[in-house]
Design brief:
single chain, alpha/beta, 8-stranded parallel sheet, 20 strands, F-box domain-containing protein, LRR_dom_sf
Length: 678
């Protein structure tokens, strides 16, 4: 079989999108490098076959990005072994000092046209090789970077680099473009680089923001500038810095990023303040779809309005009688009542026009109520003939018999009821809950929201919830008739989230079959009835989230109760504490578990390395034969060589890799080992 059935030119066009580094990434001067990723190296394409190796090599070396000493040493070795490789390098991005290998790299790369250097170099780094090699190239574009979040670094390595740049800028006769990281007077820059840069025939200057324009224009006025690029987008607040009285300077400006939508609207409103809001129509009597049959018009307009109405845009209802007639049902599809004072008004609307009730598919009461008595304050009695707030809730829930969602429908692993959660969802009474279950039980798919406690409640409400798929339970009601519940209640329940409950609630659930249950989030304190619940329903679960305290309190092995889970989430509240490795060491093989996630509420709590050192030293999941991932939601992988060297998480990740388990950060990114200097 022939090795290559395609000409090299066509193979090159096929590989180019995969190997090409866009210039906006190469020249990116954000505080976090766009190359601080943990993806597969593009050099893997060269290993496919000899044809790809031959064609892809020039593409791979066209743009070189160095982020560590090991990468610099490896590149220097490769260039020394094959001098032709260096001639392919056109763009070179160096995110550090990286020692002696940099001199050899620059010596072997005579065709570099674009050079990226950073001043964020720590004293432990070495810029000697970089300083000696800069005079060996002659770039046309020079990009200088400095992290704007921190105080500029001032050490020997940086001083040496600035001095070397000052000498080399005089020799760089091809330089016509300069990316300046400074937005105002900077003593090191002014002293070391400014005299050399301002004498160059620059036609392109890039500066951080419009606020630096005045300083930059006066500083580089001797250069034959054709373009001044502004990195940050123009905002509404920058309008005063625009040089409206200097048309020559205005003609030089170029913004490389688009402004935000808010700034666009603000700028547009300011510019068009004196213009008419709507241009006069060329045909004032024109009517869209005038010749189409009325049912067709209604169908099309109804579909258009359904797409525009989710944000509840009241103004669309006021456009015309047709819009009002067609859009009204879409307007009431999803209702969020944000003030208890609005309840009587909504109730009266539904009582006056019953046709609207069937259109309501989602309903949320979103305010905070301290107590059931607080809902109807005696000092705010409704006028004669008007409904109270409690009566309004019953009137609304008894009429909305076509609900799909009640309460907040966001999916989360949250198992604690934070204050912000309580503000978002208000309590309803137990009687209101029973009314909701009775009237909407045949359609309701998602139910959440806190319910006021009832000391002795019946279980009949659960038997009415025949279509319910997701139940978020936050209620400490005591059930007195546990044995009376039907085992066929909640037949379609797939996901159960318990934020707070009474032990009798778990007893009620343990008497149901719950044939569809697959996910459980248990954030309440430990109840003795929890083990009974897990003995009954644990084998059905594929996704389980429990708090660290519950995990420790369960008297038997979790994997005996839940032998088929594929995802286990362990929740910590307010502190980052490693769980006991004994809880995660089953005595028998558990092939189903694929991933363990550590999640919780964290407020800049420092991780105690000693505790996690013990955990990772002892966590050898021989019986968790299917385990592939450990995800920790409270950290992200470091993005610089210096931070990687200091990170305990990197050290632990490489320990677990030996055991066949990947560590993932909050974004779900797996750790990939870095190239190391031997």
């Amino acid at each position: 079989m022939r090795e290559n059935l395609l000409p090299d030119e066509l193979v090159s066009e096929i590989l180019l999108p995969a190997l090409k580094i866009p210039d906006e990434l190469f020249s990116n001067t954000e505080n976090i490098s766009p190359f601080a990723t943990y993806n597969e190296s593009t050099s893997a394409y060269l290993l496919v076959c000899k044809s790809w190796l031959r064609v892809a090599t020039p593409l791979l070396y066209n743009v070189v990005v160095l982020r560590s000493k090991a990468q610099a040493k490896a590149l220097a070795t490769a260039l020394a072994a094959n001098s032709q490789l260096g001639h392919f390098i056109k763009k070179l991005r160096v995110e550090g000092g990286f020692g002696a290998p940099m001199q050899n790299i620059l010596r072997c790369s005579p065709n570099v046209t674009d050079l990226f250097l950073t001043l964020d170099i720590y004293s432990s780094d070495n810029t000697g090789g970089l300083c000696r090699g800069l005079s060996l190239i002659n770039p046309t574009r020079f990009i200088l970077h400095q992290d704007s979040r921190h105080k500029p670094l001032d050490n020997k390595a940086v001083s040496q680099l600035l001095a070397a740049l000052s000498n080399c800028l005089v020799k760089w006769t091809n330089l016509v473009a300069f990316h300046c990281p400074f937005g105002q007077y900077s003593p090191p820059f002014q002293k070391a680089l400014l005299p050399s840069v301002t004498t160059k025939p620059l036609h392109t200057l890039s500066i951080p923001s419009i606020g630096a324009l005045s300083w930059a224009y006066s500083t580089f006025k001797t250069c034959p500038l054709k373009t001044i690029s502004i990195k940050d987008p123009l905002t509404f607040w920058d309008r005063d810095d625009m040089p409206d009285d200097d048309p020559v300077l205005l003609s030089l400006l170029k913004f490389t990023k688009h402004p935000t939508e808010w700034d666009l609207l603000a700028l547009r409103d300011e510019v068009t303040a004196d213009l008419p809001l709507i241009a006069p129509s060329l045909n004032p009597s024109f009517v869209p779809m005038a010749n189409a049959p009325k049912p067709v018009q209604d169908e099309l307009w109804s579909h258009i309005l359904s797409l525009a109405m989710p944000p509840r845009k009241l103004r669309l209802l006021l456009v015309s009688k047709t819009f009002h007639r067609l859009a009204l049902s879409h307007y009431y599809t999803r209702i969020v009542v944000r003030r208890s004072e609005d309840l009587p008004q909504l109730a009266s609307i539904l009582m006056r026009d019953s046709t609207l009730c069937s259109h309501i598919r989602g309903l949320t009461f979103s305010w905070y109520t301290w107590s059931e008595q607080n809902l109807d304050n005696s000092l705010e009695r409704p006028p004669e003939g008007k409904l109270s707030r409690t009566e309004s809730i019953f009137a609304i829930l008894s009429r909305t018999n076509n609900l799909l969602h009640f309460g907040n429908t966001r999916r989360a692993t949250d198992i604690s009821m934070t204050f912000s959660d309580m503000v978002r969802e208000s309590h309803i009474s137990w009687d209101a809950f029973e009314t909701l279950a009775r009237c909407s039980g045949s359609t309701l798919h998602h139910l959440s929201g806190p319910i006021f406690r009832r000391e002795h409640a019946t279980v009949t409400a659960f038997e009415n919830l025949k279509a319910l798929r997701v139940l978020v339970w936050n209620c400490t009601t005591v059930f007195s008739d546990v044995e009376d519940v039907s085992d066929t209640a909640l037949p379609n329940l797939e996901e159960l989230r318990i934020q707070s409950s009474h032990s009798s609630f778990l007893s009620v659930l343990s008497r149901m079959k719950l044939t569809s249950l697959r996910r459980a989030v248990i954030g309440d304190r430990y109840h003795a009835s929890l083990e009974t619940f897990l003995q009954t329903h644990g084998p059905k679960l594929s996704d389980l989230c429990v708090s660290r305290g519950i995990l420790s309190a369960i008297g038997v092995e979790l994997f005996d109760l839940c032998p088929n889970i594929t995802l286990l989430t362990i929740w910590n509240s307010y502190e980052i504490i490693a769980p006991s490795f004994k809880n995660l060491h089953p005595s028998h093989s558990v092939p189903s578990l694929l991933k363990i996630t550590f999640d919780g509420e964290y407020y800049n709590v420092k991780v105690k390395d000693s505790e996690w050192d013990i955990f990772f030293a002892n966590f050898k999941p021989q019986c968790l034969v299917g385990l592939r991932d450990l995800q920790f939601k409270f950290f992200q992988w470091p993005t610089t060589e210096r931070d990687i060297a200091k990170s305990s998480w990197v050290r632990w990740a490489e320990i677990m890799l030996v055991r066949g388990v990947h560590l993932l950060d909050s974004s779900g990114t797996k750790w990939r080992p870095r190239l190391k200097v031997k």
